[in-house]
Amino acid sequence: MKVLVPVKRVIDYNVKVRVKADGSGVDLANVKMSMNPFDEIAVEEAIRLKEAGKADEIVVVSIGVKQAQETLRTALAMGADRAILVVAADDVHQDIEPLAVAKILAKVVEEEQPGLVLAGKQAIDNDMNATGQMLSALLGWSQATFASKIDIEGDHALVTREVDGGLQTIKVKMPAVVTVDLRLNEPRYASLPNIMKAKKKPLDEKTAADYGVDLTPRLEVVKTDEPPARAAGIIVGSVDELVEKLKEAGAV
Amino acid sequence: MDFALTEEQEMIVATTRAFVERELYPYEAEVERTGRLDMDVIRDIQRKAMEAGLYAANMPEEVGGAGLDTLTWLLYEKGLGRANYALHWTGVARPSNILLAGTDEQKEKYLYPCIRGETWDCLAMTEPGAGSDLRGMQATAKRDGGDWVLNGTKHFISHADIAGFAIVFMATGEEDTPRGKKKLITAFFVDKGTPGFSVREGYRNVSHRGYTNSVLEFDNCRLPDSQVLGEVHKGFDVANQWLGATRLQVAATCLGRAERAFDHALAYAAERRQFGQQIGKFQGVSFKLADMAMEMKAAGLLTWEAGWKFDRGTVTEADMSMAKLKATEVLAHVADEAIQIHGGMGLMDELPLERIWRDARVERIWEGTSEIQRHIISRDLLRPLGA
C-alpha cells in the first residue's frame, strides 16, 4: 500500500508570532519555518506502517512556496521515500486556502493512487482543521479525524479518535483519509545517516497550474490582532474573599 | 564565498538541537546538583543518540561514524555544547580521532568498542609538573627486555573513571636539537586492570559538573610493544596528525553555550519590566545585547572559516588558535553579561546561567591556555620576519 502524507511549511512553534503593521496577517519574513508538528506525526505514523510491513511506499507532498522543499527534505530524512513539491505561491505571506489545497491533493491522489492519506489534523498557523475533511469529500473516501491510534486490517482501518469526553473507535473502509492528533506517536529525529541519504531521494517539482486548480481565495481576512494582554492578577487574603471576588466577577 | 548552510547542514543542526533539548536538558539539574551521572542515564542517552545517528558522528563512515566534513561536525559540536558537558560527552561520545592512527588490531580492540558505545577512551598527557610545557613531562617508559616499563603520574585526566583504557604519552628518550635537548615522547594504550596502572579520583572543580577528572599512577607498569600507538618516539607526531581540530571543537561547544546564555538574556530583556518599561529599552541593557551578538558572530565566523579551511588543508595553527581564543573569551563575556542582565536571578540555579558562567572558566585554560594561543598566533606572525 502506498501512503500519501501532505506536509505544510509553517512558522516554527517556538517563534513568537508578530502581527504585521497593517493587520493583514502575521509577519513571516526572515522567520524560522518548520514542518507543521501534526504533519510530522503523520509522517512518523506512515514510517511506522512501513516498518510494520503495512505500507510499502511513502510519498510526501507539500503545496506552497518553493522553500517548502526544505520541509519535504526533512520528511525524506525522517524516512519518506519520495516527495512532490507543488509550487502554488511565490510570496511566503500568501496562504493557500484549504479548499484549493484539497483540490490539488485530490489530483495528486488521482495520479498516485495511494491506499491511505495521512494528514495532520490541522496546521498550527491558521488552525483551519479543514483540508483532510474536504479532501475526503472531494474523493468520496471515508474519513477518520483526530486519530490517536490507527490499525490497518485488510480493507478496513480501526481508528481511535480523540473526541470531547473520551475516545471513540471507528471502523472505516479503505481507501481513507485519516487526520492525526497529538498523542498518536512521538516523531523520530531525522537521523544523520538518513539526512545524508535524503538528498538522493526523488523530489518532483510541479506547479498548481499543472493540476489546473483555481487558487483564488474564497475567504477574506478582515483583521489580525495580537492576543489581548493578560490583566494583572490580585492576591486574596482568604477563601471567603476569593469566593466573594469570584461572585463579583460573575464566575460562580 | 558562500556562507549559506546546505540543506543537510540545516537538518543536522535541527536534529542535534532537538536531541539536546529533549534528551539532555531534562537530566541537567540532577547532574549539576549531584555532580554525578548515573550509568542508567548514560545508557538511555546513548541508545537514543545511536538511533539518531549522533553517537560518534565525528568518525568516518567506514568505521561507523557519520562521515561529517569538519564544518558540519563543528555545527554538531555547537549544538551539543549547549548542554551540560558530562551529559553530551558520555551519552553522545565522540571518540578521539587519534584512535584512527592505530593498527588494525588496535582499532578492533579500542576504536570500534568506543564507536559501538561499549567503552570510552581518555587521553593522558598533563602532569602535575607539565601543563602548557608538555615536553617537560617526567613520566617515563623505559625499555626492559622486549617490553616497556611505565612510571610516573598524570593528572587532570578527563573521564578516566569511565574509560576502559587510556592513551598515555610518556617520555621515552631525549634528542639534541639546535635549541637544546628535547624529550622524545611515545604514545601507549594502557588497559584498565593492567598491573602497575591505577586510576584514582581527581579534584573537585568549578567547571563541568559530572565531567570528572582523575589521577593516573604508573608504578612499574609493564606493556608489550603491541601497546605502542604509532611509532616509538613519535608520540607528538601522532597527536599532531590525528588529534585534529580539538581546539575548534572547544570553540564550537563554547559557541553553543554562549548562544544558550544569550537566548536567555535576550528573552529576559524583552520581558522583564522595571521603571515602567521592558529593560531591553534601556540602553545599558540593549547595548550589551548588541555587543554580545556581534562578538558571538565574530567568534562563529572565525570557527567556521577555520573548519572550512581544515578540510581544504589550508588551515594554519594560528587560524585554529584564533578561533579557540576568541570563542572561549566570548563565552566568558557573554555568560557574564547574561547574568548582569538578569541581575540576582542570573545567579540562581533555576536558570542555566550560573553554570554556563562556571563552565566558561575552564575553556580559557584547557586545550591550550589563552596565553599559549596568543603565543601561537604571534609566533606565526613574527617567525617569517626572523623574530
Automatic annotation (TrEMBL), chain A:
Domain of life (superkingdom): Bacteria
Cofactor: AMP
GO biological process: carboxylic acid catabolic process
Keywords: Electron transport, Transport
InterPro entries, A to Z: ET-Flavoprotein_bsu_CS, ETF_a/b_N, ETF_b, ETF_beta_N, Rossmann-like_a/b/a_fold
Family indicated by similarity: Belongs to the ETF beta-subunit/FixA family.
Source organism (scientific name): Jhaorihella thermophila
Keyword Ribosomal protein included in the entry's annotation: no
PANTHER family: ELECTRON TRANSFER FLAVOPROTEIN BETA-SUBUNIT, ELECTRON TRANSFER FLAVOPROTEIN SUBUNIT BETA
UniProt protein name: Electron transfer flavoprotein subunit beta
Any one GO molecular-function label of the UniProt entry: electron transfer activity
Protein role: The electron transfer flavoprotein serves as a specific electron acceptor for other dehydrogenases. It transfers the electrons to the main respiratory chain via ETF-ubiquinone oxidoreductase (ETF dehydrogenase).
Subunit structure: Heterodimer of an alpha and a beta subunit.
From TrEMBL, chain B:
The keyword Coiled coil is annotated on this UniProt entry: no
The Acyl-CoA oxidase/dehydrogenase middle domain, residue ranges: 122-221
Stretches assigned to the Acyl-CoA dehydrogenase/oxidase C-terminal domain: 234-381
Pfam families with a match to the protein in the record: Acyl-CoA_dh_1, Acyl-CoA_dh_M, Acyl-CoA_dh_N
Cofactor: FAD
Domain Acyl-CoA dehydrogenase/oxidase N-terminal, chain residue ranges per copy: 6-118
PANTHER family: ACYL-COA DEHYDROGENASE
Family, similarity comment: Belongs to the acyl-CoA dehydrogenase family.
Name the UniProt record assigns to this protein: Butyryl-CoA dehydrogenase
Organism: Jhaorihella thermophila
